[in-house]
Every structure is written in structure tokens, then in C-alpha cells.
Specification:
- The protein is of the alpha+beta class and 730 residues long.
- It has four domains: 159 residues, Penicillin-binding protein 2a (Domain 2); 351 residues, Beta-lactamase (3-Layer(aba) Sandwich); 55 residues; 58 residues, Trypsin Inhibitor V, Chain A.
- Strands 2, 3, 4, 5, 10, 21 and 22 form a seven-stranded mixed sheet that branches.
- The protein is elongated and about 150 Å long.
- The N and C termini lie far apart (139 Å).
- 37% of the residues are buried.
Length: 730
Amino acid sequence: MEIKTNTTKRALEVKRDILWRVYLSFLGITVLSIFVLGRAFYIQKFQGDHWRSMSDSLHQRFVALEAERGTIYSEDGQMLSTSIPIFDIYIDFNADGLREKKGKRFHENVDSFAIALADYFKDKSSAQYKKDLYSAFKKNARYYPLKKKLSFEDYKVFREFPLVRMGRNRSGVIVEVSSKRETPFGLLANRTIGLSREFKDENNNAKKLNVGLEKSYDTLLSGHDGLKLVRFIAGGTAIPIEGSQTDPDHGKDVFTTIDVNMQDIAETALMRMMQQCEGPYGTAIVMETNTGKIKAMANLGRRSDGSYWEDDNYALRVTEPGSTIKLATLLSVLEKGSSKIDDMVEVGGTGKKEVAGKIVTDAERHRATSLSVKGCFAHSSNVGMSMLAYKAFGNNPSEIKDYYHKFHLDKRSPIDLTNVPRPSMAPLSTKNGEAGLHNMLWMSFGYAIQVSPLHTLTLYNAVANNGRMMKPYLVSNIQSNGIITKQYQPEVLEESICKPEVIKAARTSMEATVIDGTATRAFKGVPFTIAGKTGTSHVADGPIKYSHGVYQATFVGYFPADNPQFTCIVLIRTKPHAASHYGGTVAAPVFREIATKLYAMYVEKKDPSLYAAKKDSTGFYYAGYASDIKNVYNTVNMEYDDSIAQNNLPTGQAGWATVYARNNKTIVKSTTVRKQVMPNVRGMGLKDAIYLLENMGLKVDIRGKGKITMQSVAPGTALTAGVTVILELS
């Protein structure tokens, strides 16, 4: 019994010993687990950024070596668009150089660093800079953005700041270099040259937003990035691996046909008129006649604040061209042989006539009831040109398309730009009644067809070039490191668009337009010959309706007419109900200024001021109530010739007068005012004009200050009560 008890006792002791060992082991495992978990939590919470950065850095990878984008030059080698470096500055506050000795280097330099930043950039106080820097230092910020898009000049100054000049490892300063596209000449040809921008899409992929030449020649300008294999070590320092580098293929340089001086002349002349007329947009293009080189291409669009900028390429925008298309009609009918240049056309004396069942109206009445074919063109008779087209193509309206096709008016312009709009033409088929015939009639004087100013210019240039149509182009050559890799030569689109005698007749007609046609006033006194055509189209496209009173004024031509060197087109879209909206009064003055300066500088190579219009201080023109005018002259004892008294005019006809200078004498001449006929109020003061017009039952809308320079209703127009007359004062 005693033996059994001892055995049981020893068994219990062994069991307790085993349990004690088990409990001790379990406790040890528990403590170890808690320690491991605690350590893991500590590392993740407090040392995670450090170890993650170490993990990221201890590996190899390829990095891109960015290729430099090529430069766009003018024909004479001036930079039109180039890339300049810009610098983004970051600070790694976990850099060893800043953290050693409890951040001693940072604390010793932060005050002077903050003061230097505040004094130079002047965007924050030194106290605010210091506060921001301390906050980032406490957070161990690895990539704190300090400054963005610094210029090279600013970066050079920044490198000498306290702390920064100690170098990257000690200061933690990280510099990222990128490039920014700049146009040194600003507005000049800005839209033609275009822009090059990079952005990130919603998936953070790099995308390009390019327009103009920057887009058309993007592949050549961009080049190809190189690659470099680097090994990152602790601290994020990259060490290149020898023999692994592929050098970038830098972008090539594009040399354009643009002449900076010509571009400046065209841009300035166009800007002056745009600011005066306040139209929504305008364009002016200068082409070298023999080659097709575009020497200037100005595009100005009105912004919301009233200023103008090169915001779109209006030279390529297709619209109804108006009377400038009459050259295509003239060439077509002469080439077909249905009419000769001296044939007479009965246009009537009322300015209206029925042609193929439709009433066609001329913008102005003609003194004669019949005009020659040349006269119809020179005086821009819609009636005459539609009758010529009807005679030639009335039986088969679609036939005119064959001629327009040869003139390249039904295809995209071949200019070396992308996204060039396609012209359009109304249907000319007669299968569905007479719609095709009527479309052909409207087309003959500038409607039912949409072409760009560049299309029109190319056609007129062909006539100036004796029938040879040249391809318009903007790029002269491509260069790499100063060596020409590709040369672009003038290209002929059509060796001859018409018979030589037809071209000669067309040139004679364009000269007549300037000598004794719709452009006579605009070019009076120009000391060299010009040939061309005015165009005025009533606009109805998109949201704009005919009732809005928007017009498109154009002049296109070449000079000197006997030996053409340059062909130029000016197109300006007017604001609604503009008092002056004709091609001869809005676009032709811009053409005159461009032609005068180009002729002086590039044809005769003289000072353009020799041909600049000079103001005559003795010349003047005023209008008003006759007795008031004479009272003023008598009061100041100024002599004048009184043609009213000399002609013994009745009192009723001597109420209104004009005053002007002739042979250094002041002439006071009577102005006849008739009931229900619009009087000439130009030169009047506002008081006299309002008194006269409102007593005739008219409403008056006033624009500007000073004396009246423009009136929306032409003198001599029959009136009805309630008509609104817009007066522009200057």
C-alpha cells in the first residue's frame, strides 16, 4: 500500500514538472510573439518611410535621357520657337547631410536660407519660409516642393543661397530640369508656328498638345530619348553602370520660309485695322509669287477683353469668299470660249436683274446699263458675272466644277500643315430641278462655295505667275547640327491653269479693278502698279445669320503688276452692322500698307517711309449748318470762298454745307437735302446730324466720339420712316 502511494506521488511530481516546463515554454513563446509584433508595429509606424526608401533605392533600372527639342527658325536664321530649360526645386529633409548631429547643419542655416528666399522671390516673408521649412523638417519630408519652373537666371542665383551651395548631399536640395517652349517674337506668326505642350491624362500618361508647325513637324522636332542603366544605392543616389548608355537623338531644326520683317509688317497693318473696326478676326498672308513660299501669315482673333491675339489659323478657315471668287468665274468662261474679254453684258441701270428666274443684285449701281466682261469684273457686278456664268454653263451647271477642280478649289490646300480643312461646294446637279443651276449662279459671285483665304491666294498667285500654280509651303529645310538633312524646293501644282491669252485678260481685268474699279480710291497715289480684286460677302455660317449684318471684307492681289514679286490677301470679318464693311474700305487699306512697305524694302530696297502716306495739315473736311459755319469763320476773321452765295442758291437749299480745302483756299459749299433721301452726314458734328436725321423720321445709333466718319446707310438711298442709321464718330 505504501509502495503504491509513493508511486502515485512521484507520478504527480513528474506531471507538475512537465506542466511547469510547458507553461514556461508557452510564456516564452507569448513574450517572443509580443516582442516580434511590437517590433513590426514600430518599424511600420516609425521607420517605414526609411526602410521603404532603402528598398526602392537598392535596385537597378533604366532611366530616360531626354532628347532636346529642335528649334524653329525664320528663313534668315532668327529663332521663332525654341526650348529653354526650367528648374523645379525639391528638398529631401531625410538626407544624411541634414540629419547628422541631430540636424545641426539645417538649424545653423535655416534662418539665412529663409531670408535669402524671401529677399529674392518676394512671395513670402522670411518668417513664413522658416516656418514652412521647419514643418517639413519635422515631418521628414522626402520630396518637399520648394520652387517650380525657375528660369535659368533665377536658378543661377538660387544655387548661391546659404545651405544650397553646400551641395545636394549636405543640403538635401534636389533639382529637376525640364524644358519650356518659348516664342522669342511673341505674337509674330504665333499661330502658324504653333505651340508644343505636354500634359498628363486621367491615367497619368504623358500626352502632347501641339498645333501649327510644332504639330506638323513634331516627329522631326522631338527626336528620340536615350536610355541609361543606373544602380540606386542608399540615399537614392544613382550610379551609372558603365557601357549601358544609349545617347538621345536630339530633335532636328526646322527652317521656315517666314521673313520676320514681312511678318511684322503684315501683323502691324492687320492689327491697326482690327483695333479700328473691332471685328472678330482677320488674316493677312504674303506669298512669294515665283516660288509659293509663305513669307508672312498673320492671324488675329478678338479676345473677351477686346485685345487681339494669334488664337487660330484663320488663313485656313473655309468660308464663302464673296467677289474674290469672280476670278475663277472669269477664267472659266474665258477658257470655255463662251465670252471674250471685250464682249458687252447688259447689266441694266437699276442694280438688279433676273437671271435664270432669280433676282441678282449688285452692291452698287453702275452708271452704264451695259459693261464689258472686263468691266463686270473690275466693277464687281454680280449681275454681269452671273449672266456670264449662265451663258457658259446654264445647260450643264456641273461643268463649272471641272474648271474649279483645275484651279484646286475643291481640294484641301497642300500647305505643309496638319488638319487643313476641306473646301465645300453646293450640289450642281440638275436632276432635282433647278437647284443646281441656281447654286452655280450664286457660286459665280462668291456664295454656295466655301474656300479658305489660302485657296484664294493660291489662285491669284497663279495668275500673277503667268498661269503656273505653285504649291504654298512654310518650311524651307531641315537641319541637324547645322547640316541640311532635307531641302524643300518650290513645287508646281499646275503648269498652266488656263491659256496664255486668258491669263493675260485676267491680269488686265485685275489691273482695271485698281485703276478704274472698286479699288480705285484705296490705291490712289501709290507709286507702283497693283492688280487685284475686292470682295465683300454677307456672312451666314454657324450661329451667324444674314440678319446679324456680319460681312467679310477681302482684298487679294499682287505687286508690282507688271512684274509680280509678291501676292497678298487680307481678309477681315466685321462686327455686326459695321458702318464700313466693304473690301475696298476695310481690307484694301491693310493691303496697301503691306504692299507699300514690302515694295520699298524688298523690290526697290528703299526706306519705306518714302512711300508712307503723309498727312496734309492743310487738308480738312467738315459739314454742318451753313449759317453756323460761316458765323465761326467770320468771328475768327478767316477768309473763305462762299460758293453758296456765288451760286445764288435758294434759302431752302443753302441750309447745310460742307467745308474743305482746295488750292490752299477754304471752300464752303452747299449740300442739298431732299425728303426721303439719305443725306451725306460725314464730317458733321453729332448735334447737327441728329437734328437733321431725326427730323427726317430716322432713328440714330451712335458709336464713338468726335465728328462723323461713317454712316451705315449710303447717301442717296431712298428712306422709309423708322429706319435706324448707325453713325461712327472718330
